[in-house]
Design a protein that fits this description.
By secondary structure, the chain is of the alpha+beta class. The chain contains 15 helices and 22 strands. The longest helix has 22 residues.
Length: 498
Amino acid sequence: MMRSSLGFLIPSTAALAARSSAPHAAAHGRPDAAAFASSSPSTPPYKVLIIGAGATGCLVAHRLGQLSQADATGKLGAIELDVVERASYASGRLGAGASLPGRAHCDLGAQVLSIVDPTDERSTATQRPQAAHGITPRDVDHAHELVTSLESRGLLVPAPDDALCGTEERLNWPGFWRHFWGSPGGGLRRVLKTLLDDAGVQPSFGVRVGSLEAAQDGTPVHRLRVRGVRRTWGAAEADGAGQAALPREEPWVGDYDCVVACIPGPNALEIDGLVDLLPPLSAKVLRRVGYDARTARAVWYDSPEVCGRLRELFGRLSPPRAELDDLDLADLHHMNATSMPVGHASNGSNGYTAGRDGPDSQIELLAFQDAKRMMATRSSTEGDLNSTNRTRGCAVVAHGVAGSQRGGFADIPSRGPGSVHALLARRMSGVSEKEVAAAEVGSKAIRWTTAQLIRPMEAVVEDPPMAPDPIWQVMTGGIGGEVGEKGRGPILLVAGDL
């Protein structure tokens, strides 16, 4: 299962914003990026390109927008900021999702956004005098302030700890995290769109960057020339709501003073010339960070019987859940054949062992999208899921078992053995696989070849640098001079889920 922790992205955001603006401030004799608003109208704009409109890219755009907005109209000041994203909407692993008209939005990447609880004593400066993973108490506070603002605007809703499945971080650090669902109307995708809107940025979607190179402009200070391909879609696919005809393609090119690559390591390595602009150590680390791979599939149903059974399925655990992992599913399967209470799996004489079983063993997590809405908008969580009322439409997202980027990973088929229909029929009483399949009104799958980070930067460096400038926060490269130095050439910054 994929997850997204805003607390780990905030340090990168602050450092990226500072570094991407530092050369411009230094060139005008100003060490403070906030002084951009006072720059002369005759000063050429400092052109910044953000590659990737996922969580990191949108956060960086939001922060730069805050620093460089020159007036109340929200127009950017001395920074000319562009954002490109290869998908048809602001997505990445946080914002990926799909909707059907009049039905629940499905998050197809991370199911929750998580931050460190600033009131937990383990997050204070006393308990953490040195930044862990580059995260300082100030970063924790910054993340909390941003999430609180998004929550007050109705974009995030608290997700109860006991409604979620256990992850390594949650199990090792109970009570350390606060989790949030995206609003029922648009999921976590709306969070990313709002960050971009607040920054006054309209991204260029469908742009896949292919190469970086020095752009000679006849002066001692050059720019980076960025080349790629731009695709355009029909309206349905652009909104993530359906399929369209094959996209049209055309060349895309731009020259920039600073390029900020906010994409996973494997995607950064696909850009020709990027590694050549990084120091050897950074290039080595970028090649060695590792991710797992998996499939996610959303399925929408239109049946009072099937949706009612789904609510009962997720309400059978105590307390009721919005997510079920493979162990929960094995428990529920066993409950259909015995009277053993859920959560008391046995590996004794009856031969039952909690864990994956059967042909649907490639599914690791089920996330009931309607439970998010119910738990976020009703006062009684248990009453909602265990209610005898029947909701006609509902949706569930399945995350597959993790595989490897090189060794491959299993699909979640749309029909037959291993499908979501088969799993639900095996776990729900009183409904057949044929009936479940007949109730489907839509389905969408994403094959995540780069999913959860499993080998981060600090795991591939013998002596990781410490705060305030950890290498896994921001990789810096480019052409000539030091960052912030007067006359510095164009710079490249690489950050994100590394």
